[in-house]
Amino acid sequence: MALNKKDNLVVVENVIANTSVNVISITEDKLENILIKHLAIFKKSKDWIGSLALFITVLATLLTSNFHTLWGLEPAVFQAIFLILLVVSFIYFIITLLNVIRHKDSIDSLINDIKNQQKSLKQ
Q: Among the residues of 1-123, which ranges form H helices?
């Protein structure tokens, strides 16, 4: 490379390229199907937030409320209803947490699914 100070030009004598690129070719409908599948997995990975919020809400209600007789139901009945809701919401939270652990998704797995889709076409 030479630098001409008079014209402020750089003359390139040699270019060395050290780049490589992987190209993935896929049809639009197949890519859309793969993306829809991964979007569903991504949405499931966020379900634990809602189930945890539900559990905390029911727990806070159970701990802070003084139940009174309403519509002919005794306070113990309302307490039992909220206790059942607490157990059900905890089970729901555990199930959603297990789904998050089981169905982890990442950009790498998305790309691998796209590549695997292409490998099956070549066979």
A: 28-44, 47-64, 75-102, 107-122
Domain ranges of the chain: 26-122
Instruction: Classify each residue of 25-49 as buried b or exposed e, where b means 16 or more C-beta atoms within 10 Å of its C-beta.
Output: eeeeeeeeebeeebeeeeeebebbe
Does residue 117 or residue 53 have the better pLDDT?
53
Pairing type for strands 9-11 and 2-4 reads: antiparallel
The set of residues, in sequence order, having a beta carbon less than 8 Å from that of 93 and lying 6+ positions away, is 48, 51, 52, 54, 55
pTM: predicted TM-score of the whole model, two decimal places = 0.56
Encoded tokens for 1? 């490379």
**The CA-based dihedral angle spanning residues 47, 86, 84, 100, taken in that order and rounded to the nearest 10 degrees:** 30
Cβ neighbours of 57 (radius 10 Å): 13
> CA of 73: how far to CAs of 59, 66, 85, in Å?
21, 14, 17
Q: Report pLDDT for 117.
A: 54
